Amino acid sequence: MSGLGLPKAECPEQVGFSSQRLQRMGDVIRKDVDRRLIPGAVVIIARAGRVVYHEAFGYRDREGGAEMHTDAIFRIASMTKPMTSVAAMMLSEDGSLEIAAPVAQYIPEFAEMTVGTARRKAERTMTVQDLLRHTSGLTYAGFGDSPVQMLWRDANLMDDNQTNAEMAAKLAKVPLMTEPGTTWEYSMSTDVLGRVVEVASGQTLADFVAERITGPLDMVDTGFTATGERAHRVAEPQTDLATGARPPMRHVAKECNWHSGGGGAVSTAADYLRFCQMLLNGGELDGVRLLAPKTVALMASDHLPPGCDYGETAATRFGALAPVPEMGYGFGLGFCVRNKQGHSPVPGSVGEFFWGGVHGTTFNIDPQEQLVMINMMMAPDQRLHYRYLTRQLVYAAMTRSRGARR
Questions:
Q1: Is the pLDDT confidence value at 121 over 60?
Q2: Collapsing DSSP states into helix, strand and coil, what is residue 151?
Q3: Does the pLDDT value for residue 403 go beyond 70?
Q4: Which of 190, 200, 318, 391 is 20 to 30 A distant from 168 in Cα terms?
Q5: Element (H, E) at 372
Q6: pLDDT at position 1 over 50
């Protein structure tokens, strides 16, 4: 099991995969590396608790001449969000955190939130559930040029030198984008949730995650930094041929004050597989239980209310995997969930849940097929294409379906 995260299948055919078709997937990715479309990738697939496929492609650092290896460490960006969400649900099970409670119960500065540049007092209080499902009214400053987002930019909300407490205090002073509970707007909700976790637990988010999640699950390379020896395994994006510059990336080789619950973690494919397999198993892995099965089922249910509106960039930013009814998806407590077949053009199963990171990483958990797939890469501009491609190639390599016909 060393280096794989889970035990290895004797062969792909043992768990319903075609070795030949998996090879075809590898050939497609290698071709894209050769064409310089991506620097490299690490893909891992597990079914029924056994690793079917675990391959590294291309370069960890193309310009530095460093080849990609399966133990490469990636900035997983928004794949941090499910980890922070699990932390919140664990505290809920402890009785230390109430999901239905107002956020102001844990962060008093959020008691008097305003909406829009007119700063109208919010009609409804923001709840912890709103943070988990992105209906808080918060936004991301970089996802548009609206007057509210311009005010957010002035507040310097993405500062590595701030603490989560300082970040939350800044957010409490800027107006919300929308009325809480009305709109799915991808946002800094999970960053605020990280601060709620700190208040409810009495620990920093980094310490809670290390003590209660990554430590027990033996996710040895996952955290909010990659210092020491681990710094030499961090994957980097390639330079843009037109500009000669790399996309801006957060420095992870040194300690920072801000443990971003929405996007600050690093991990390996094998580590994140263990996290996903824990969720697929209903909250348990290798005798370690983090959550009850009913809690995981709650997280993987669609929590968006009837008549929910969507932010202007939801469809364009997430494309065929957007959590919108026309694609057959909703959003649970930490990730997108599939409600219906036949709407999205990408393959999958009703009941699957998934998310990805802005730099190109992605994961998908398909309970019907007892399947976990993870693609780690540093290719921000191509992220949607490879989210679609990974699904197409993985499901095309399956020769036996466990899922019910629908």
A1: yes
A2: helix
A3: no
A4: 318
A5: strand 371-376
A6: no
Provide DSSP, 270-295. HHHHHHHHHHHTTSEETTEESS-HHH
Of the chain, the percentage scoring pLDDT greater than 70 comes to 99
Instruction: Say if CB 353 and CB 337 are below 8 A apart.
Output: yes
Cα–Cα distance, 39 to 249 (Å, whole number): 15
Angle at 377 between CA 373 and CA 383, to 5 degrees: 85
Question: How confident is the model over 331-380, as pLDDT tens digits?
Answer: 999 999 999 999 999 999 999 999 999 999 999 999 999 999 999 999 99
Pair of tokens at residue 299: 């997280």
As a whole number of angstroms, the distance between CA 64 and CA 356 comes to 26
The yes-or-no verdict on residue 186 having pLDDT over 90 is: yes
Token pair 């190639």 is found at: 393
Cα of 30 vs its chain's centroid, Å: 25
The pairing of strands 266-267 and 74-75 is antiparallel
Residues 6+ apart with CB under 8 A from 188: 138, 139, 140, 157, 171, 262
Residue 8 is encoded by which pair of tokens? 């290895």
Q: How far apart are CA 360 and CA 45, in angstroms?
A: 17
Report residue 402's pLDDT band, with 50, 70 and 90 as the boundaries.
Answer: confident
Average per-residue pLDDT for the chain: 95
Angle at which helices 189-201 and 81-94 cross, to 10°: 30
Place of tokens 């697929």: 280
- Least confident span in 72-81, 84-93, 239-248, 281-290: 239-248
> Distance of alpha carbon 390 from its chain centroid, rounded?
16
Average of per-residue pLDDT across 18-36: 97
Strands 309-310 vs 114-115: parallel, antiparallel or unpaired = unpaired
Judge contact between 235 and 269, C-beta under 8 A: no
Bridge partners, residue 43, by sequence: 55, 375
Q: What is the mean pLDDT of residues 164-179?
A: 97
- CA dihedral in degrees (272, 240, 37, 336; nearest 10)? 40
- Asked if 68 contacts 40 with a C-beta cutoff of 8 angstroms, the reply is yes
Torsion angles phi and psi, residue 236, rounded to 5: -125, 150
Helices (H), 108-266: 128-133, 147-154, 164-171, 189-201, 205-209
